[in-house]
Write a sequence for this structure.
């Protein structure tokens, strides 16, 4: 399976959704994540930030942004975004424990304190 090709297809799908509704936060957030998987991190974060301008409490967008920032080695930003995701939807605390995109930050004190604190 060609992962990049799949992300290309997904991005095209989200582009079509955004033609219909440019404020679709699901499409904005997920297009951002697709771009990140293609290593287009700056553009990816911009899509998430646009979604968060529309709905600042969109937990899934904060979570996607945290994943993108982790993939881009932006530790402090990733932790802050993950903290916001958890604030709006606590289940992300559990999901983050298994999320492969957080492997690069998983062993940091900041991640451990956020995810494993009671």
């Amino acid at each position: 399976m060609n992962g990049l090709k799949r992300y290309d297809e997904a991005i095209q799908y989200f582009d079509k959704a955004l033609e219909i509704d440019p404020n679709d936060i699901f499409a904005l957030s997920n297009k951002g994540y697709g771009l990140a998987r293609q290593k287009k991190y700056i553009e990816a974060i911009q899509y998430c930030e646009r979604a968060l301008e529309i709905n600042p409490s969109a937990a899934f967008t904060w979570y996607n942004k945290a994943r993108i920032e982790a993939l881009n080695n932006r530790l402090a930003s990733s932790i802050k975004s993950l903290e916001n995701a958890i604030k709006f939807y606590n289940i992300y605390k559990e999901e983050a424990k298994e999320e492969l995109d957080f492997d690069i930050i998983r062993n940091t004190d900041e991640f451990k304190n956020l995810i494993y604190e009671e």
